[in-house]
Structure formats: C-alpha cells, structure tokens
Design a protein that fits this description.
Elements (H helix, E strand, L loop, with lengths): L26 H4 L8 H19 L7 E10 H9 L1 H9 L12 H11 L1 E3 L6 E3 L2 H4 E4 L8 E9 L4 E11 L2 E4 L31 H10 L14
Parallel strand pairs: 1-4
Antiparallel strand pairs: 1-5, 2-3, 5-6, 6-7
Helix pairs in contact: 2-4
C-alpha cells in the first residue's frame, strides 16, 4: 500500500517472517525480484549481508559490535565494483532486502554512509563506524571452493572478534554459507532470508541431468522432456 509518508532513510521496515517449506526449486526461486544488474554479484551479496545480520543478532556480544569488515573474493573482487556488489553489501548490512528495497532511496542511503562514515546495522543493532575503503575490501583471489566468496567479520570497540562467517553467491541469487569442497547443490539447504524451515529432501540433490531424470522418475515428478532431441 502506498502512503504519503516519507520513509525514514536507513530504517527499513522489517520484513514479515513467513513459514514455508521448499520442496526443491520452484519457478519463483528461479525468477527473482531484486536490484541489478546481477543476481550473483548484486542480489547474492545483499542477501549474504542480511544473513550475516541474522547470525550476528543470535551471537553473544552483538550489542557491542563496533566494526564489520567485509571481504569480497574472486569474481566479486574483480568485477564487484561494476556490478554494484559494494553497494549491495552496504545496503544488506543496513537490513534492506533485494526484493523489498525502495530503489529511489538507494542513492541517499549510500551517500549517508559515505559522507558520515557510519552505517546503521539492521533494525536493532548498533550504529557503527564504516569507512568504505577500509571496511569493504576486494580481493581478486578466490577462496575455495567457489569464485564468489564473501567474508564478514564483526569486532567490538577493543578489536576483539565477535563473529565471522563466509558465504558464497552461487548464482541466480542463491547463497550458501560455508560451502565445502565437493558439496552437492541441495536447493532446500540454500541459505534463505525469512524462513528457517528445512524440508529435509536431501535425496533431491543432483549434479547432472541424468541424475535429475532418474530422481523425477523415482519420485513420480513431472518434467517436460523433448523426446525428439532427448534433451531437458
């Protein structure tokens, strides 16, 4: 609903938590609403920052956080500036979501951070000092096992580490935390904002089209297949 009231810059309306169970991937997972220009380099980093906020709120000492260091690795480090990854991370740390943010406010939100050298973490976390050139760093070298790695480290005023976490933007706006070498892509295990449900369908993991077809036959799921060409 549209109103005439002006939004308070830096204080986004908290999203309403909803319960849902992901039974694999739906068309709404594949086609997302979000800021651009890239799902992996813009939407993903923004979601990763939001996930870090969620984790930080559950950590002892979260009220004493005074600094958050952000490190973008690999492809994010090489092309992140052009894809707006830096902007996405800052907006995500403020608690904004890629499908809910008012894009008209983005320039003003970023200008405040850069002019005041401060950033309001989420909805109920401290206002921290944030100097972009010192607190948002780009590294061309990847961290295993994915080229789109993002690290967040929260410190208190004494410089003691409160929390650190690593996320991987694996494409399509999907984000995984702490992806390990050899891990299989499991849709319902992808980190999600707004839901902590786990459908438990780990048997739906697949790494090839043949495995996908075998899985659909086993579970009696329908999948459109071109019989003439034998391709999905």
């Amino acid at each position: 609903m549209l109103t005439d009231s002006k939004p308070v810059v830096g204080r986004p309306t908290p999203p309403v938590a909803t319960k849902s169970i992901m039974a694999g991937l739906s068309v709404f997972d594949l086609f997302k609403i979000g800021i651009g220009p890239s799902s992996s380099h813009t939407v993903g980093p923004m979601k990763a920052a939001g996930l870090f906020l969620q984790k930080l709120k559950q950590t002892q000492g979260h009220k004493t956080v005074a600094r958050v260091l952000c490190k973008l690795h690999g492809s994010l480090g090489s092309t992140g500036k052009g894809h707006g990854s830096d902007k996405a991370v800052m907006l995500g740390l403020m608690g904004h979501l890629p499908d809910q943010i008012d894009v008209a406010l983005i320039p003003e939100l970023l200008a405040q951070i850069r002019e005041l050298h401060s950033l309001q973490l989420g909805f109920d976390l401290p206002l921290i000092r944030f100097v972009e050139k010192n607190d948002l760093l780009f590294f061309t070298r990847s961290i295993e096992p994915h080229p789109n790695g993002i690290q967040f480290i929260a410190y208190n005023a004494l410089g003691d580490e409160i929390l650190s976490a690593t996320y991987f933007s694996i494409g399509g706006g999907f984000v995984r935390e702490g992806l390990l070498p050899g891990n299989t892509f499991i849709p319902n295990k992808v980190a999600s904002l707004g839901s902590n449900e786990d459908a438990g369908h780990q048997d739906r993991a697949f790494t090839s089209a043949d495995q996908l077809l075998q899985m659909t036959r086993r579970t009696i799921l329908l999948l459109g297949v071109s019989k003439s060409k034998g391709k999905v």
